[in-house]
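Progress note, sequence design subtask.
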Protein backbone atom coordinates (compact mmCIF):
# COMPACT_ATOMS: atom_id res chain seq x y z
CA UNK A 1 0.00 0.00 0.00
CA UNK A 2 1.11 3.59 -0.65
CA UNK A 3 -0.29 7.11 -0.40
CA UNK A 4 -1.28 6.87 -4.08
CA UNK A 5 -4.25 4.67 -3.21
CA UNK A 6 -6.17 7.38 -1.35
CA UNK A 7 -9.03 9.46 -2.70
CA UNK A 8 -9.30 13.04 -1.49
CA UNK A 9 -11.30 16.17 -2.26
CA UNK A 10 -9.66 19.23 -3.72
CA UNK A 11 -10.31 22.59 -2.08
CA UNK A 12 -13.05 23.10 -4.72
CA UNK A 13 -14.76 19.89 -3.46
CA UNK A 14 -13.84 17.92 -6.61
CA UNK A 15 -12.94 14.27 -5.97
CA UNK A 16 -9.42 13.30 -6.96
CA UNK A 17 -6.70 10.83 -6.08
CA UNK A 18 -3.24 11.20 -4.61
CA UNK A 19 -2.29 8.94 -7.55
CA UNK A 20 -2.08 12.08 -9.72
CA UNK A 21 1.19 12.83 -7.88
CA UNK A 22 2.67 9.38 -8.53
CA UNK A 23 6.42 9.54 -9.03
CA UNK A 24 6.80 12.81 -7.10
CA UNK A 25 8.34 13.48 -3.72
CA UNK A 26 5.54 14.88 -1.54
CA UNK A 27 5.32 16.86 1.67
CA UNK A 28 1.84 16.31 3.12
CA UNK A 29 0.87 18.85 5.79
CA UNK A 30 -2.19 19.44 7.95
CA UNK A 31 -2.67 23.19 7.93
CA UNK A 32 -4.64 25.95 9.65
CA UNK A 33 -5.11 29.66 8.95
CA UNK A 34 -5.30 30.95 12.52
CA UNK A 35 -2.41 29.12 14.16
CA UNK A 36 0.93 30.31 15.50
CA UNK A 37 2.51 28.12 12.82
CA UNK A 38 0.44 29.62 9.96
CA UNK A 39 3.45 31.66 8.70
CA UNK A 40 4.94 28.30 7.68
CA UNK A 41 2.79 28.64 4.55
CA UNK A 42 5.49 31.02 3.28
CA UNK A 43 8.28 28.44 3.62
CA UNK A 44 6.08 25.65 2.26
CA UNK A 45 5.45 27.80 -0.82
CA UNK A 46 9.17 28.51 -1.16
CA UNK A 47 9.95 24.77 -1.07
CA UNK A 48 7.26 24.15 -3.67
CA UNK A 49 8.60 26.84 -6.00
CA UNK A 50 12.19 25.66 -5.57
CA UNK A 51 11.63 21.96 -6.24
CA UNK A 52 8.38 21.56 -8.20
CA UNK A 53 10.23 21.35 -11.54
CA UNK A 54 12.24 18.43 -10.12
CA UNK A 55 9.16 16.38 -9.20
CA UNK A 56 8.18 17.73 -5.79
CA UNK A 57 4.87 18.96 -4.41
CA UNK A 58 3.44 20.19 -1.14
CA UNK A 59 -0.10 18.98 -0.38
CA UNK A 60 -1.99 21.06 2.17
CA UNK A 61 -4.89 19.61 4.13
CA UNK A 62 -6.74 22.19 6.25
CA UNK A 63 -7.96 20.89 9.60
CA UNK A 64 -10.09 22.51 12.31
CA UNK A 65 -9.43 19.96 15.07
CA UNK A 66 -6.91 22.00 17.06
CA UNK A 67 -8.61 24.79 19.02
CA UNK A 68 -10.79 25.69 16.02
CA UNK A 69 -7.86 27.32 14.22
CA UNK A 70 -9.29 26.63 10.75
CA UNK A 71 -12.87 27.93 11.10
CA UNK A 72 -13.45 29.07 7.51
CA UNK A 73 -14.99 27.22 4.61
CA UNK A 74 -12.91 26.03 1.66
CA UNK A 75 -13.35 29.26 -0.33
CA UNK A 76 -12.19 31.35 2.65
CA UNK A 77 -9.23 29.05 3.27
CA UNK A 78 -8.16 29.12 -0.38
CA UNK A 79 -8.46 32.92 -0.57
CA UNK A 80 -6.59 33.41 2.70
CA UNK A 81 -3.67 31.21 1.60
CA UNK A 82 -3.37 32.77 -1.85
CA UNK A 83 -3.73 36.39 -0.72
CA UNK A 84 -1.58 36.26 2.41
CA UNK A 85 1.09 33.73 1.47
CA UNK A 86 0.94 33.42 -2.32
CA UNK A 87 0.14 29.71 -2.04
CA UNK A 88 0.03 27.93 -5.39
CA UNK A 89 0.66 24.37 -4.16
CA UNK A 90 -2.39 22.07 -4.06
CA UNK A 91 -4.83 22.59 -1.20
CA UNK A 92 -7.53 20.10 -0.35
CA UNK A 93 -10.89 20.18 1.40
CA UNK A 94 -10.92 20.50 5.18
CA UNK A 95 -10.58 17.11 6.90
CA UNK A 96 -10.08 15.46 10.27
CA UNK A 97 -6.56 14.18 10.85
CA UNK A 98 -7.08 12.46 14.20
CA UNK A 99 -9.72 10.52 16.05
CA UNK A 100 -12.46 8.21 14.88
CA UNK A 101 -13.31 10.36 11.86
CA UNK A 102 -9.72 10.87 10.72
CA UNK A 103 -9.35 10.71 6.95
CA UNK A 104 -7.92 7.33 5.83
CA UNK A 105 -4.89 9.10 4.32
CA UNK A 106 -3.91 10.50 7.70
CA UNK A 107 -4.59 7.18 9.43
CA UNK A 108 -2.14 5.64 6.95
CA UNK A 109 0.44 8.39 7.45
CA UNK A 110 0.38 8.15 11.24
CA UNK A 111 0.52 4.35 11.19
CA UNK A 112 3.58 4.45 8.96
CA UNK A 113 5.36 7.34 10.67
CA UNK A 114 4.60 7.51 14.39
CA UNK A 115 5.61 10.61 16.30
CA UNK A 116 7.64 11.04 19.45
CA UNK A 117 7.77 7.93 21.63
CA UNK A 118 5.69 5.99 19.11
CA UNK A 119 2.62 8.19 19.40
CA UNK A 120 0.45 7.87 16.33
CA UNK A 121 -1.87 10.80 16.98
CA UNK A 122 -1.24 14.13 15.33
CA UNK A 123 -0.85 16.60 18.16
CA UNK A 124 -1.13 19.92 16.30
CA UNK A 125 -1.38 21.83 13.03
CA UNK A 126 1.50 21.73 10.56
CA UNK A 127 2.62 18.17 11.21
CA UNK A 128 4.49 17.21 8.04
CA UNK A 129 4.99 13.87 6.31
CA UNK A 130 7.68 13.35 3.65
CA UNK A 131 6.79 10.82 0.94
CA UNK A 132 9.19 9.30 -1.61
CA UNK A 133 8.51 8.77 -5.33
CA UNK A 134 7.08 5.31 -4.66
CA UNK A 135 4.47 6.64 -2.24
CA UNK A 136 6.23 5.45 0.93
CA UNK A 137 6.25 7.53 4.10
CA UNK A 138 9.89 8.44 4.72
CA UNK A 139 9.68 10.78 7.70
CA UNK A 140 7.39 12.73 9.99
CA UNK A 141 8.22 16.23 11.21
CA UNK A 142 6.80 18.05 14.21
CA UNK A 143 4.88 21.31 13.80
CA UNK A 144 7.86 23.23 15.19
CA UNK A 145 10.09 21.96 12.37
CA UNK A 146 10.27 24.78 9.86
CA UNK A 147 9.68 23.68 6.27
CA UNK A 148 13.07 24.97 5.04
CA UNK A 149 14.74 22.68 7.59
CA UNK A 150 13.38 19.77 5.54
CA UNK A 151 14.97 20.96 2.26
CA UNK A 152 18.02 18.66 2.53
CA UNK A 153 15.76 15.64 3.07
CA UNK A 154 13.70 16.61 0.02
CA UNK A 155 16.83 17.08 -2.12
CA UNK A 156 18.13 13.66 -1.04
CA UNK A 157 14.93 12.02 -2.35
CA UNK A 158 14.91 13.94 -5.63
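Output:
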Amino acid sequence: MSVYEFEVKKINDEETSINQFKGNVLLIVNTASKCGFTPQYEELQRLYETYQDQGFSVLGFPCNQFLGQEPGDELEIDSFCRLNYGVTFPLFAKIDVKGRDAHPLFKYLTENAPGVMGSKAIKWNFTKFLIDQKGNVVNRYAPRTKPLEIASDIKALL
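The chain has four helices and six strands. Work on this subtask will continue into the next period as scheduled.
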